[in-house]
Amino acid sequence: MLNKVILIGRLTKDPVMRYSANMVPVTTFTLAVNRNYVSQNGERPTDFIPIVTWRKLAEICANNLKKGRLIAVTGSIQTRTWDDNSGNRHWVTEVVADDVRFLEPKSGFGSSGNAEENRDFDEGFDSVFEDIPEEFEGFTPIESEDDLPF
């Protein structure tokens, strides 16, 4: 079985960070993702997909993402249900992100885009990958945007 999602889109509003009952950081945001076709009225339909991040990645996203930011998200689909006080059952489908990549130039990172904020962000983001699962052993991450073939 495989449950893997890769999305590229823009945040519809600033992310919201809160803490679980066990004081684990969790950040949520919605990603607007255009479909790959044009409708009869000449527009690309857009899906609005809820994203959830946890722990260090949640803190990084909360501190560095803003409405309109172009990002790539890799993760898995999760569905969950809950009953409200009136006994109505609610369903939600969301993507639990295990990787978030910022797709705009580094000068756009952080609230002011200055070099010190960018350095702090880069160092924090790298720490997300300290414990790489065994299935990714042998995988070589790209160190710099200059290494990309496009």
Automatic annotation (TrEMBL):
Keywords: DNA damage, DNA recombination, DNA repair, DNA replication, DNA-binding. GO terms for cellular component: nucleoid. InterPro entries: NA-bd_OB-fold, Primosome_PriB/ssb, ssDNA-bd. The keyword DNA-binding applies. One of its GO terms (biological process) is DNA recombination. One of its GO terms (molecular function) is single-stranded DNA binding. HAMAP family: SSB. A motif (Important for interaction with partner proteins) lies at residues 145-150. Homotetramer. Pfam families: SSB (PF00436). This is Single-stranded DNA-binding protein. PROSITE patterns: SSB. Plays an important role in DNA replication, recombination and repair. Binds to ssDNA and to an array of partner proteins to recruit them to their sites of action during DNA metabolism.
